[in-house]
User: Fold this.
Amino acid sequence: MGGRVTRVFRNFNVENRASREISKEKPTPAPRHRTARLDTMADSPEIKEEVLRKDDKFLTLLKDVYVESRDPPVRVKDGGGERLPSKQEEKRLTKLGHLEALDVKKVSKGKISLVEALTLLNNHKLQPQIWTAEKIAAEYSLELKDVNSLLEFFIPFTVMEFPKETKKAITSRKPKQLT
Assistant:
């Protein structure tokens, strides 16, 4: 309903208002700057003659000018001690097992992929006597101090399942751990 009311007032006496606006006297434009008037005078023959005329005084001064240009000697940039690597970085194939589709295929020596990191952390958690820091460092081409830091500060998640008989109340006994 509101749209109809607005339309009625908007269209009320449109022709009369339009003709009144058209018949109003237009305001006089502001005076133009004299540089704008030069464009109209550019067609005059006096200005064309002045532009095309050669001044002998300026022409002799221009002939006396001699420009000599020399390029500075080309200096070879010194790398500042930076050298190109003499050989490509050594890479090793990853040890992924059944998660092969999830990860990269080749990793630089001294680094491990995310799937490998989770795998070695889980192996160490399950069998710490077999998967020692020294064996992990040798297996994955890592430094021993990095492996020790990895085993100390990164712990994989553990999933705990509570037995069904203690479903309502958790007792103090140790729950069964899944790996």
Q: What stands out?
A: The chain is about 40% helix and 5% strand. The CA atoms of residues 47 and 100 lie 84 Å apart. The beta strands are 91-93, 106-108, 159-161, 176-178.
